[in-house]
């Protein structure tokens, strides 16, 4: 077991790693949400070329492991002149990968809106853009909130995969401490508890969203 001296020495390192984990999560979530919404709107578009491109992109990215995507961005991009730090590659890789999962969440929300409301808006002479922004998307977001929250929890846990390209997040710091102390049980138990502490508020929020919107 860790002594109080060990905890005083290693907890700041793990806390620093947890902070980087949250930074990667927050930035990757912004990327995933914005791109995911774009892919979803293209997916439900009446323009066949846009819908086909979005469908092909989503299926392709979802079929490639996130680790491979991170390797590709971090190791292959420099060969074509795109230099990225490990942190930047982690954010972009996770954000892009999860944008395809977010796209399916948003698409299900958009398709879950009652078509009768769209027809009613059309009968009032509203343009397609106004129908989208004032009628469809507000309701689609409510429908999509519970699965969106679950995807956020998955993204937060998957930030650990960025450690493979040396992003110094929580699991990376845990590996360093475990390799130097050989106290694998203590270190990774502490790392697991810290991940749980970060995920638990999200899990509670998701549960409340499911109760509030799930019946609808």
Describe the structure in your own words.
This protein has 216 residues and is mostly helical. The chain has a single domain, classed as MetI-like fold, CATH 1.10.3720. Helix content is 81%, strand content 0%. The protein is built from eight helices and no strands. It has helices at residues 4-43, 48-62, 66-76, 86-111, 115-123, 128-158, 170-181, 184-213. Helix 1 crosses helix 4 (86-111), helix 4 (86-111) packs across helix 6 (128-158) and helix 7 runs antiparallel to helix 8 (184-213). The radius of gyration is 21 Å and the shape is elongated. The termini are far apart. The mean pLDDT is 90.
In terms of topology, how is this protein built?
Blueprint: H1 4-43, H2 48-62, H3 66-76, H4 86-111, H5 115-123, H6 128-158, H7 170-181, H8 184-213
Helix pairs in contact: 1-2, 1-4, 1-7, 2-4, 3-4, 4-6, 5-6, 6-8, 7-8
What is the C-level CATH assignment?
Answer: Mainly Alpha
For the sheet with most strands, the description reads:
none
Given the helix and strand composition, which structural class is it?
A: mainly alpha
**Helix and strand run:** HHHHHHHH
CA-to-CA gap between the ends? Answer: 49 Å
Number of contiguous helices: 8
Question: In one word, what is the shape?
Answer: elongated
CATH topology: MetI-like fold
How many β-strands, per DSSP?
Answer: 0
Level-2 CATH architecture: Orthogonal Bundle
Count of structural domains: 1
CATH superfamily: MetI-like
Q: What is the radius of gyration? A: 21 Å
Question: How helix-rich are the residues, as a percent range?
Answer: over 70%
Mean pLDDT: 90
Tell me the strand percentage band: under 5%
Unreliable stretches (pLDDT < 50, length at least 5) are none
């Amino acid at each position: 077991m860790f002594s109080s001296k060990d905890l005083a020495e290693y907890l700041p390192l793990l806390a620093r790693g947890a902070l980087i984990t949250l930074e990667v999560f927050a930035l990757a979530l912004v990327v995933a949400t914005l791109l995911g919404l774009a892919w979803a709107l293209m997916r439900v578009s009446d323009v066949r070329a846009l819908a086909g491109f979005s469908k092909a992109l989503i299926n392709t990215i979802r079929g490639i492991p996130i680790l491979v995507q991170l390797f590709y961005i971090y190791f292959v991009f420099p060969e074509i002149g795109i230099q990225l730090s490990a942190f930047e590659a982690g954010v972009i890789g996770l954000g892009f990968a999860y944008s395809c999962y977010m796209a399916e969440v948003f698409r299900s929300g958009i398709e879950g809106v009652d078509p009768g409301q769209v027809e009613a808006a059309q009968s009032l002479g509203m343009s397609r853009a106004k129908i989208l922004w004032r009628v469809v998307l507000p309701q689609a977001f409510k429908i999509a909130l519970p699965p969106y929250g679950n995807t956020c929890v998955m993204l937060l846990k998957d930030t650990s995969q960025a450690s493979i390209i040396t992003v110094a997040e929580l699991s990376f710091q845990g590996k360093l401490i475990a390799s130097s102390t050989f106290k694998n049980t203590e270190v990774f138990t502490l790392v697991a508890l810290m991940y749980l502490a970060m995920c638990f508020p999200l899990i509670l929020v998701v549960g409340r969203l499911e109760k509030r919107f799930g019946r609808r």
